[in-house]
Structure formats: structure tokens, C-alpha cells
């Protein structure tokens, strides 16, 4: 649902662009279980909307990032699917990240923190931003581990014992 929502918003922003004139490369994002699948789904949903994409880096690049954030108090949520809701561009209207952090601290008591997923997307070319979105999605609380970086794998440790002849 999140990839479909992001694809719809980005396709709307690119509606006036000449069809197929600027193939877009969707860059991989940080190492989380969610990001790997999100990129594949985002590509599929963009193609479904007729957006020309490239399999190799091009002049026009779509970047996305996901971040687990504390519960956003006082934000208007819009349902987009069962158990999934979105707050459109919450930081722009709420006065920035500092105001957001203060609102969260005031609204949440100790031990009651909930999380949402912030998904930011941008289309860039030649050192310029051409389009972008920033949305917070309310998701099932049991899924928060999917949005966090994978834990590094520990190297196997060998223990040697010196024996006298």
C-alpha cells in the first residue's frame, strides 16, 4: 500500500513531463527488510502508471528513504487501507521537526511510545530537486523491526588452546 501511495503521488507530480523523455532510475535505499521490497514494489507501481524507468543510473534519479519515527500526535490521519493511514507532509504544516518532537514528548508518557514510518521521496537531476514527497504512515506496531537496519552478522570466533609437548 505504501509503494502504491508513493507511486501515485510521484506520478501526479510528473504528469506534465513529456512521456518517456526522461527515464528515471530508482536508487536503492538503506539496508532494511522493508526498503528492499519497497523499491521493487515502487518500480512496479510506477510502471503501472506509465512512468518511464531505467535499470541503470540516468540523469534523472528517484531516491527514497524510510525512517521509523515516534508517534505523531495531533496529525490528521487519512486511511488508505485496513490498518494503514497516512499523514501528508506533516512536518511542513506542523512547524518542523522540533515542533513535532515537542508535541510527541508532551503527548506520550513514559513507556507508551508508538512508531510510524516516515517515507521521503525525491526526484533529482543535475544537482537539483525536481519533485518530492514526505509522508508519515501509521503501520502495525508489530512490524517496526522491518523498518530498522539489519543487525550486522557476527563473524565466527575460533578459540585456540596452546598445549605443551
The string of secondary-structure elements, in order, is HEHEEEEHHEE
Overall shape: extended
Indicate the radius of gyration in whole angstroms: 20 Å
Helical content band: 25-40%
Counted beta strands: 7
State the strand order across the main sheet: 2-1-3-6-7-5-4
Strand proportion, as a percent range, falls in 25-35%
What is the residue-mean pLDDT, rounded to a whole number?
79
User: Terminal Cα separation, in Å?
Assistant: 67 Å
Structural class: alpha/beta
- Summed up, the domain count is 1
Sequence stretches where pLDDT stays below 50 over 5 or more residues: 93-112
Oligomer class: single chain
Separate helix tally? 4
Characterize the structure shown.
With 165 residues, the chain is an alpha/beta fold. It has one domain (2-147). It is 27% helix and 28% strand. It contains 4 helices and 7 strands, in the order H-E-H-E-E-E-E-H-H-E-E. It has helices spanning 2-13, 33-48, 90-94, 97-107, and strands at 24-26, 53-54, 60-70, 78-81, 84-88, 115-125, 128-138. The chain has a 7-stranded mixed beta sheet, with helices on one face. The model is unreliable at 93-112 (pLDDT under 50).
Amino acid at each position: 500500500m505504501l509503494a502504491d501511495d508513493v507511486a501515485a503521488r510521484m506520478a501526479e507530480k510528473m504528469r506534465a513531463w513529456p512521456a518517456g523523455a526522461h527515464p528515471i532510475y530508482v536508487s536503492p535505499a538503506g539496508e532494511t527488510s522493508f526498503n528492499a521490497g519497497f523499491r521493487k514494489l515502487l518500480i512496479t507501481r510506477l510502471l503501472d502508471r506509465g512512468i518511464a524507468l531505467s535499470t541503470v543510473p540516468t540523469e534523472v534519479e528517484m531516491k527514497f528513504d524510510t525512517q521509523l519515527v515516534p508517534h505523531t500526535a495531533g496529525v490528521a490521519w487519512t486511511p488508505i487501507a485496513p490498518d494503514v493511514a497516512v499523514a501528508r507532509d506533516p512536518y511542513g504544516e506542523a512547524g518542523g521537526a522540533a515542533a513535532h518532537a515537542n508535541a510527541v514528548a508532551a503527548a506520550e508518557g513514559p513507556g507508551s511510545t508508538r512508531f510510524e514510518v516516515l517515507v521521503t521521496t525525491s526526484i533529482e537531476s543535475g544537482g537539483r530537486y525536481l519533485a518530492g514527497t514526505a509522508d508519515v504512515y501509521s503501520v502495525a506496531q508489530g512490524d517496526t523491526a522491518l523498518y530498522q537496519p539489519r543487525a550486522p552478522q557476527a563473524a565466527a570466533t575460533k578459540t585456540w588452546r596452546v598445549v605443551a609437548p
